[in-house]
Specification:
The protein is of the alpha+beta class. Helices cover about 30% and strands about 25% of the residues. The chain folds into two domains: about 1-75, Phosphorylase Kinase, domain 1; about 85-215, Transferase(Phosphotransferase) domain 1 (Transferase(Phosphotransferase), domain 1), CATH 1.10.510.
Length: about 230
């Protein structure tokens, strides 16, 4: 709280955003501005520590981190703007918005491409992880992000299950305890995220009998998304 007060002024009002899988996020608002506060506890402490490292390496990102007891936390700039999911809301509601959505899709792809050019794999691209601003899209949630030279996330088993690349799902089904993030898997997740944003009518089918993983079968086409092969 003291770091948030230093950056935003006092008093600070905290609003909870998410709290799941060992990490919680708040929006802190004060007289001088707003910041995002993220805390990792238990199994989430490692991922928040990793994310702090990633944010420190990415240009244009300001982050202050530390430890309190067994918890790891960081404070960074709050990014105002709608998520990709919200940008596509008018399309899903059938009230137009197609041009805005297409522009948003291109900006999200550019943000992912720029990250890849820097050697990073985001590893968890999903509809809520792109924030649309006047200057373009800012990606968020780098808990599983990775680049060559950085220790691979030891417990990474893909992102959102239905956006996992088929090769990830197959390896985990075969007993792999972790998988290595790839650009190809990021691209697969990006395509799936954009489709999810455009329609909520998709139905899901398991990739293998008894498998906890699902492969999307999109309405009116009757086929699965093509497999992306990593090299």
């Amino acid at each position: 709280m003291s770091t948030a007060e230093t950056l935003c002024g006092s008093p600070v009002i905290l609003t909870g955003i998410t709290d799941r899988r060992g990490s919680a996020v708040w929006k802190a608002v004060g007289p001088r501005g707003s910041v995002a506060v993220k805390s990792g506890y238990g199994v989430g402490a490692e991922s928040v520590l990793r994310e702090t490292t990633v944010l420190n390496e990415l240009s244009g990102r300001t982050v202050v981190g530390g430890r309190t007891g067994d918890s790891v936390w960081y404070v960074t700039d709050w990014l105002d703007g709608p998520s990709t999911w919200k940008v596509f809301q008018p399309v899903r509601d059938g009230v137009d918005g197609r041009t805005w959505a297409l522009t948003g899709a291109v900006e999200l792809c550019r943000a992912a491409a720029e990250l890849h050019e820097l050697g990073w794999r985001q590893s968890d691209l999903q509809p809520s992880h792109g924030i649309h601003r006047a200057a373009g899209v800012c990606l968020i949630d780098f808990a599983w992000s990775w680049r060559e030279g950085l220790s691979a996330p030891a417990h990474f088993r893909g992102g959102v299950t239905h956006l996992d690349a088929p090769e990830f799902a197959a390896r985990i089904d075969d007993g792999a305890r972790h998988v290595t993030p790839t650009v190809a898997a990021d691209v697969y997740a990006l395509a799936g995220a954009l489709w999810t944003c455009a329609t909520v009518r998709g139905r899901w089918t398991t990739g293998r009998p008894g498998s906890p993983y699902v492969v999307p079968v999109w309405p009116n086409c009757g086929r699965r998304l093509p497999q992306v092969v990593s090299h």
